[in-house]
Every structure is written in C-alpha cells, then in structure tokens.
Specification:
Number of helices: 14
Largest sheet: 9 strands, mixed
CATH class of the largest domain: Alpha Beta
Helix content: 25-40%
CATH architecture of the largest domain: 3-Layer(aba) Sandwich
Number of strands: 20
Structural class: alpha/beta
Shape: elongated
Number of domains: 2
Distance between the termini: 33 Å
Radius of gyration: 24 Å
Strand content: 15-25%
Oligomer: single chain
Length: 497
C-alpha cells in the first residue's frame, strides 16, 4: 500500500471515501460542516449515542452527492485530553480495516495535527494505516474469500500547512513499517517454511537490498566458536542451526555499536520435556525476537539511521529425537560456564547465552536482547506490555520512554542477585531453570550471567509477540513487536537523548 501526501481542502476533495477522525464529545469545524451537508446525520447519531467518537468506533455514511466525497468514514479518536500519536495510530488501524472491508481499494484521510505536530501526526496515520492493512494470506487459495488489499491512501493536509513535514513523516513510517511487516511475515510463516536456513536467506536478501551486512554462520563455525548451548538445543532437529551476525555501521568502526540479540527458535516442541499438544502450533512464533532484530535492521537501513548496530541471531528448532539434549545433561557454553539441564523447554536461554557472549566480542555500548522466553511473563503481564529486566538505569529509562512513544510499552521487573539461589546446581555452575516461581525473573538472571559489565536489557515478549483476536493496527497473528520500540530507542540515541 502506498501513502501519498496531498495539499487539499477535504470539503472540495473528490474521492470515493473520506476518513475523518473525531474526538469524544465534540464536533470539529470540519465535521460540523460535513454534518450540515449531510443533513444533520452525524449530530443525530451522537445524540442517540450510536457514534460518540470513542476510541475505535467507526461509522460509514453515504454522501448522496451532498459532498465532494462519495462516502464518509468517521473514526473515533477518544478523549482529546491526553491524545498522543498512539491515539492516531490506533484510530487509523481501525479505520483502514473498515476501509478494506468496503473493497473500495483506497481512501483519503484528513490529517488532524491538533493533538500532535504535523510530521508526527502524518507518521502516526501512515503507520496505523500500513500496519492495520496487513494480512498474511500466503497459503489461502480461494481468492474470492479474500479481502483485496488497500491499493493507496492519500493523506490530506491543509493547503497552507507544511507539506514537506508531512511527507517526511510518511517516509519515516514507510521505512519503519517495512521492518515491522517483514518481522510479522517471518513470525506468521509455518515452521516447515521458516526454518533456520530460510530465515538466514531472508536476512541475507534484505542485507543485499538495503546495504547492511549479514554473515551466516553454519554448524561447523558455530561448533568452532564453542557455542555449546546452541548446539545442544539443535541436536534433536534435522534442520541444522544457523547464527546470523548483522552489521549496520554508518559511523565507522571507531564508534561502539548497540548490540541486538534475538531468540530464534523456529519451532519449539519443548524437546524431551515436551509441551502439551494443545496450542503447540503457535510455537512457530518462538523466533519473534529474531524476527524483531532482522526487522529493526531493515528499518534502520531503510531510514538511513546514523547509529552503529550489531545483531546476533541464533536460529534452531527444539525437537525431541534420539540425539536431543536431555534433562540431567551438562552443557558447556561459549563463555565457558557449565549448565545443568533440568528442563529442555528452557531452551531459549541456552541459545541466547552463547549469542550474548558472542555479542561482547564487538565491544558494544549496550546490549538489548528480545525473546519469547517464558510463559510466566504472559501470566504476569498479559498481552499489553513486554517485561523489561535491566542492569543499567540509563538504558532502562531510554527504553521505557521509547516504549511510551511507540505504543510498545514495557514494564520493569527485578533481576536481583538473590534470585540466583533458585538456579544453583549441585554439579554445574548453574541450572537452566529455577522451578515454578518467578520464572521470568530467574530466566533473566540466567542471561545476566553472560553480559559482563556491559549495560544490558532483556525484553521478554512472550505476551506481546502474538495477537489472538486482531485489534486496531495489530491484525491477528504475529505483531512484529520490538521493531518500532527499538527504532524509537535508536532515534533517541541519534538525537543524543
């Protein structure tokens, strides 16, 4: 879908469908005039409380030739007080879903910059539209049952407004959403397609197109580096593991990079400690952290971000087999630390600890890892926030602020040393699981042992990586969570915040 900025008066702009946002409890001058031309229909709906402007509400009205547009779609923005860019993103997500259902092929959206600056408003509207229009229909064969994509969206700005600012906002949204949509595609692909080798190939192709580097380490190189955690998890699979090293270094080698690490378990059965069968098909999403890292590189390169990035992405399946690692095994990690395996379904931390240690070799200024790591995180926070664990206050504050700005919110949990008592092993340096209590925290504590003194944040996205129902700009399926968060964080770093 293409977004185009047009300077036009919405009252005179001819189109098939005009989209206008409305705040709760008020009629803007534009909506008041549109209501007059439509014979008071909007005011009547408000009086009957059929459309109040509440967040997410939409209503479609036919013009009958009484206005320049053939039809009018009103979308609720919620309360004006406290409205931010996320309000616009969500509203336009709902709107574009309704637009797609009309099968009209496109629309024109009035850019309302009353609550946020014009460039930010245009970016939010374009972002909500591009992400709300997304659907994963690759394997559906009956075209008659599919809604057609929205071909194009015009963003209408007032004739005297700064059209260039709006265009910059739209361009930023397009680059950002390219990364999010790729991440969603990778998560939504079935496990028999999105294998370690296939994900590596997708990353290589993106790197060639956009100019960042992608080195793919095969099993022999992984073994040569001593990545015992990744090798142990991969042993039960017929698909050999891969480990990606991504680099975007526009500032040269002298500037320390931010290192991003993403869990890439392309299908997780639990291994010997096998999961229940019900719902196991969802375990194709256990590589959402890897998808977020790859998507972030796509977005950063598309936007030409002036920040050095390194990404380390371990990729494997976790399956039971005669060669699979077992409870009771002792695994030696790349860092030289030994781990007693008490649960083979605690595999994410086993591949991440090697990736984190390898990331240290790039002498990063900070390390951020993302992983669908624990079911305990979903129990604690549900699906509205990702859990954050931090060794560094400044880094945690930067990411929390980026979460508020992007709408991908974070909630911090402790990672105190006392939790390490639950991870003590009688025969090795530590266990890979600490029992039924504080599961997200003990998993984070485990990872913390592999980052040294480097400022580090772990983000557990187990609850936010998948959308069950489909809301606003998050259709059902993979959400691509983390890409917008990390890009917002990196923008702050570029601006010295």
């Amino acid at each position: 879908m293409k977004c185009t900025v047009i300077s036009a008066d919405p009252l005179r702009h001819r189109c098939r469908l005009l989209v206008v946002g409305c705040f709760t409890g008020e009629l803007s001058p534009l909506v008041t005039e549109l209501d007059r031309r439509l014979g008071g229909g909007v005011a009547a709906m408000r009086k009957r409380k059929e459309f109040t402007g509440a967040a997410g509400q939409t209503t479609l009205l036919q013009s009958g030739g009484r206005m320049a547009a053939d039809s009018l779609l009103l979308v609720g923005l919620g309360e004006r007080k406290g409205a931010v860019a996320e309000s616009l993103r969500r509203a336009m997500g709902w709107a574009i879903r309704r637009v797609r259902a009309t099968r009209l092929g496109g629309c024109s959206i009035v850019v309302d910059s009353d609550c946020v600056p014009l460039q930010e408003a245009a970016a939010a509207i374009a972002c909500g539209s591009l992400l709300g229009e997304y659907s994963f229909d690759t394997y559906k064969t009956d075209a008659k049952k599919l809604l057609p994509p929205v071909g194009g969206v015009n963003l209408l700005v007032p004739p005297r407004a700064d059209k260039g600012a709006a265009e910059r906002g739209v361009a930023e949204a397009a680059g950002l959403c390219a990364g999010v949509r790729l991440a969603r595609d990778l998560v939504n692909e079935p496990g028999n397609v999105a294998t370690p080798a296939r994900i590596a190939a997708v990353a290589e192709e993106a790197a060639r197109e956009l100019g960042f580097s992608c080195r793919v380490m095969a099993e022999d190189e992984i073994e040569g580096l001593g990545m015992g955690g990744l090798l142990a998890v991969s042993r039960g699979s017929a698909q050999p593991p891969r480990c990606l090293v991504l680099q975007h270094l526009p500032l040269g080698d002298a500037t320390a990079p931010v290192a991003l690490v993403g869990k890439g378990v392309t299908f997780d059965s639990g291994g010997i400690s096998i999961k229940p069968g019900s719902g196991m098909e969802r375990m194709k999403d256990d590589m959402a952290g890897a998808a977020a890292v790859i998507g972030t590189f796509v977005a950063a390169a598309s936007l030409g971000m002036a920040v050095n990035l390194v990404g380390v992405v371990p990729l494997t399946e976790n399956l039971p087999d005669g060669r699979a690692y077992k409870p009771g095994d002792v695994v030696t990690t790349m860092a030289g630390k030994t781990v007693e395996i008490v649960n083979t379904d605690a595999e994410g931390r086993m591949i991440l600890c090697d990736a984190l240690h390898h990331a240290l070799s790039f002498k990063p200024a900070a390390i951020i890892d993302m992983a669908t790591l624990t079911g305990a995180c979903l129990v604690a926070l549900g699906t509205e926030a990702s859990a954050m664990f931090a060794s560094d206050r400044r880094l945690a504050k930067e990411l929390h602020l980026a979460g508020e700005r992007s709408g991908e919110r974070l909630w911090e949990l402790p990672v105190w040393d006392e939790y390490g008592e639950l991870m003590k092993s009688d025969i090795a340096d530590m266990k890979n699981a600490g029992g039924p209590h504080g599961g997200s925290i003990t998993a984070a504590w485990f990872l913390k042992q592999f980052v040294g003194r480097t400022p580090w944040v772990h983000l557990d996205i187990a609850g936010t990586a998948w959308e069950e129902k489909g809301v606003h700009y998050r259709p059902k399926g993979g959400t691509g969570v983390g890409v917008r968060l990390l890009v917002e964080f990196l923008k702050g770093r570029c601006q010295g915040e």
